[in-house]
Design brief:
By secondary structure, this protein is an alpha/beta fold. The chain has one domain (about 10-230): 3-Layer(aba) Sandwich (Rossmann fold), CATH 3.40.50. It has 6 helices and 7 strands. The chain is globular, with a radius of gyration of 17 Å.
Length: about 240
């Protein structure tokens, strides 16, 4: 197994939820971590709260904007001499049936969940050294299972899976490994679907730390081996009816 100690990592959307759990896990493994978020207040708070775990850097960036992504990675350049890992975690969901969906709803999903992953991957690839790097894309089981009200979100995650596969084929001989992690229902404030109201008992859901565990696992695989996809689902999902 490879060690994460000393690795330089970027985690997008690392201020809360799954991204926060991933950043904390990497820091505990001895990696240096750069995070971004859309609010200066949330970024500063997350950096302050995680500072005791290791080397952490944060910057405000809206990764749905290519220019923001470029500025973020330029800021990371000033903190890290190299880049080893990118975790594309930042995402959003606007749940609407197609006939009720605005253009803004559609673009919000696609621009952040899919285009943002491309912008970040492109910047990371430019910074990986000759020894290569690792890109983990946090996708969703919604990338394989469509549901009513999820057209824009489904499309963004289906697209992210296709992008991940093509990215791997493009750069595997450049010593770049790529993995898609597809969790099902995760216990975060992000979880929601207008047709499925939030349940009071959420103990059956996947915890953000479980997703972070999966990220740590794939990153520590020997360099000769690439785990290209992981599906995660609750062991005992809530029964309906």
């Amino acid at each position: 197994m490879e060690k994460l100690s000393g690795k330089k990592c970027v985690v997008t959307g690392g201020t809360r939820g799954i991204g926060r759990a991933i950043a904390e896990r990497l820091l505990r493994e001895g990696a240096a971590v750069a995070i971004c978020g859309q609010s200066g207040e949330s970024v500063n708070r997350a950096v302050r709260e995680m500072s005791g775990l290791g080397q952490i850097f944060g910057s405000v960036a809206n990764i749905s904007r290519a220019e923001d992504v470029t500025k973020f990675f330029e800021a990371v350049d000033k903190e890290f001499d190299v880049l080893d890992v990118l975790v594309n975690n930042a995402g959003t969901a606007r749940f609407r049936k197609v006939g009720e969906m605005s253009a803004e709803d559609w673009h919000r999903n696609i621009d952040l969940n899919l285009n943002g992953a491309f912008y970040c991957a492109r910047e990371a690839l430019r910074r990986f050294s000759a020894r290569g790097g690792f890109i983990v894309n946090v996708s969703s089981l919604a990338a394989k299972n469509a549901f009513s009200g999820g057209a824009a979100y489904n499309a963004s995650k289906f697209g992210l899976n296709g992008f991940s596969e093509a990215l791997m084929l493009d750069h595997r001989y450049d010593n770049v490994r790529v993995c898609s992690i597809m969790p099902g229902s995760v216990d975060t404030e992000f979880t929601g679907n207008p047709d499925k109201p939030r349940a009071n008992d959420r103990s059956w859901m996947i915890a953000p730390s479980d997703v972070a565990e999966a990220v740590g696992l794939v990153l520590k695989m020997p360099a000769r081996t690439m785990v290209s996809a992981i599906e995660m689902r609750p062991s005992r999902p809530m029964k309906l009816g």
